[in-house]
Specification:
Layout: H1 18-36, H2 39-53, H3 56-87, H4 91-98, H5 104-143, H6 145-192, H7 194-200, H8 203-241, H9 244-255, H10 261-278, H11 280-284, H12 291-309, H13 312-318, E1 324-327, E2 335-342, E3 353-360, E4 365-369, H14 376-384, E5 390-396, E6 402-405, H15 416-421, H16 433-442, H17 448-452, H18 474-488, E7 492-496, H19 504-511, H20 519-522, E8 525-529, E9 541-547, E10 550-554
Length: about 550
């Protein structure tokens, strides 16, 4: 057999394969020169090899840098895409009610990051492997065609066996991601509710619950390791047993004097390149960053995409049989309910409210009362557009002219100024410092800005700005929420027991009809929930929910 000479043009070499081919050619020439004891050729090829290798490190560094930038670019695009869909039309609120997709924070933050890193890595590896495969397949085929075809068949069988028996590993990795996210969520919950847990002295209970979550993480991971161990018994044998094949083929030809010494090293080199290129799936299937884990992340991201794009959310938004909180700015009436019937979530046949109709003129105030659990908050959520279970119609001003204050006001991560202006941003607002300080004074928070170190104080040096919910009492948070009303001046306000943590004096200050009055002075329409008799004088009409869907108006 005539061993083929190496020619880049002859074999159509791709530039990415040149470093490998340099080593490939060097091995043949080096061993042939060594076998012939030709010092001049040996030194010549050694110097040429070293000169070519000087280009290697910079190219590898630039290649890794480009991979990192590509992964970051993909992550930026995917995160913005998923985040935009997730927060669109209040889907972040509705998703837990209509889908079993869990831990959306983990999916958007970590799963997308890991997916992009692995996708770029697999893409680059596949491209290089394909170029490498084309070059060395031609060379190996020229050396000995039967050896090449045997290797291809061997790799196809190995890939099929690995994928077939490794399918359960994808499910196990998907479950591992869920359990890791559940454990992290438990730790976040402990951090966010630290004060309540401390008051209850509930450290032992919380530690026990967190340990249960972590034990589940460990148990599932052990199952993955055991499964990978069994699969790796095959993949290891697959990679090592075939190594003897080129020696069996080329060895007798060398001893017969048909090929030079360098041909043996060259055959092994090209054989292993083709084997590794064809065995990409086998080699990359297991491990925390393997294809099985990558497939699990793809499934989790696809579940989230389906939920926010095509699943029950769209049917909920389009269904005419559900309560509809529509915004009709052209009508004169501020708020109008037409034959509204609200149902609880789940399959309960009970009706929270049956055939309720009412009209609120601009500037009027309605108080909704009734015992706990009767449906007061559900009615507020329906008016705000958050409750879709039921029938009828709701007409109110657009969301940008509506402000909802819950019993526990939302405190965003940010400064005191950012919290007073929420949901607007500092850049979108022209409110002055004096206006903010005056609003805080009117809600009996005259010293809170000084206490916080100014309107723009972060509250903590370095790191994320802590929420004011960790600094202010619940009563102070409720008063701060009323300051938002003064600053934002909405046309329609929904108050869901938003003064429950206030004493009677402060509550009166929030509603009082005098110079320091808040809601009445701004001339907005108000719907309130509360059972305190002290609230009745500040409203024009009282709606009492009496149970089993019944209701009545009181003057």
């Amino acid at each position: 057999m005539q061993f083929p000479s190496l020619s880049y043009r002859k074999y159509g070499v791709h530039r990415k394969s040149i470093p490998s081919l340099t080593r490939f050619a060097y091995k043949q020439f080096f061993w042939n020169a060594l076998n012939a004891k030709d010092l001049a050729k040996f030194n010549k090829f050694l110097a040429l090899y070293l000169a070519v290798l000087t280009l290697g490190p910079p190219l590898l560094v630039l290649f890794d840098w480009a991979k990192g930038r590509m992964a970051l670019s993909w992550r930026n695009a995917l995160t913005n895409l998923y985040l935009g869909k997730y927060v669109h039309k209040m889907r972040y609120y509705k998703l837990p009610f209509v889908s079993d997709v869990d831990n959306t924070d983990q999916r958007i933050s970590e799963d997308i990051n890991n997916f992009c890193d692995k996708a770029v890595s697999l893409f680059c590896t596949s491209v290089v492997a394909l170029c490498d495969l084309v070059v060395f397949s031609i060379i190996l085929y020229k050396i000995f065609p039967p050896l090449y075809f045997t290797l291809v068949a061997y790799a196809v069988v190995g890939t099929f066996v690995t994928v077939w028996f490794g399918k359960p590993l994808i499910k196990k990795n998907r479950l591992q991601l869920k359990k890791e996210a559940d454990f992290r969520f438990d730790l976040v919950r402990i951090r966010e509710d630290s004060e309540s847990i401390a008051f209850y002295n509930g450290e032992t209970r919380e530690r026990t619950e967190a340990q249960k979550r972590f034990s589940s993480v460990v148990a599932n991971r052990i199952g993955i390791l055991n499964f990978e161990r069994n699969l790796n018994f095959f993949t290891r044998w697959y990679r090592y047993l075939v190594q003897v094949l080129p020696a069996l083929v080329i060895g007798p030809q060398y001893f017969a004097g048909k090929v030079p010494l360098g041909a043996i090293s060259q055959t092994f080199f090209s054989f292993n390149h083709v084997l590794n290129d064809l065995s990409l799936i086998v080699n990359e299937f297991t491990g925390p960053q393997g294809i099985s884990s990558f497939a699990a992340q793809v499934e989790r991201l696809d579940q989230l995409r389906t939920a926010v794009e095509k699943n029950l959310l769209l049917r909920m938004e389009a269904s005419p049989s559900r309560a509809c909180a529509s915004a009709l700015p052209a009508v004169r009436l501020t708020c109008m309910l037409r034959i509204l019937t609200l149902l609880p979530t789940g399959n309960s046949p009970r009706q929270l409210i049956t055939d309720l109709s009412l009209t609120l003129e601009p500037g009027k105030k309605l108080l909704v009362v009734g015992f706990s659990g009767i449906g007061k908050s559900s009615l507020m959520r329906a008016i705000a557009g958050l409750w879709d279970t039921g029938t009828g119609n709701i007409v109110r001003p657009p969301l940008e002219d509506t402000l909802f204050l819950s019993q526990r006001p939302y405190m965003t991560l940010g400064t005191l100024r950012e919290n007073v202006l929420y949901p607007k941003t500092v850049q979108d607002s022209s409110v002055t410092d004096e206006e903010i300080l005056e609003a805080l004074r009117k809600v009996n928070l005259p010293t809170v800005a000084e206490r916080m170190g100014g309107l723009d104080a972060a509250g903590k040096t370095g790191g994320l700005k802590p929420p004011l919910s960790n600094i202010l009492s619940l009563g102070e948070q409720q008063r701060l929420a009323f300051a938002r009303i003064m600053i934002l001046k909405p046309k329609f306000v929904i108050l869901d027991e938003s003064t429950s943590a206030l004493d009677l004096e402060n509550e009166e200050q929030m509603y009082k009809v005098k110079e320091e009055m808040l809601l009445q002075d701004l001339g907005m329409t108000v719907v309130s929930v509360g059972n305190r008799p002290s609230l009745v004088p500040f409203h024009d009409k009282v709606l009492r929910l009496t149970g089993e869907g019944a209701w009545k108006f009181e003057s």
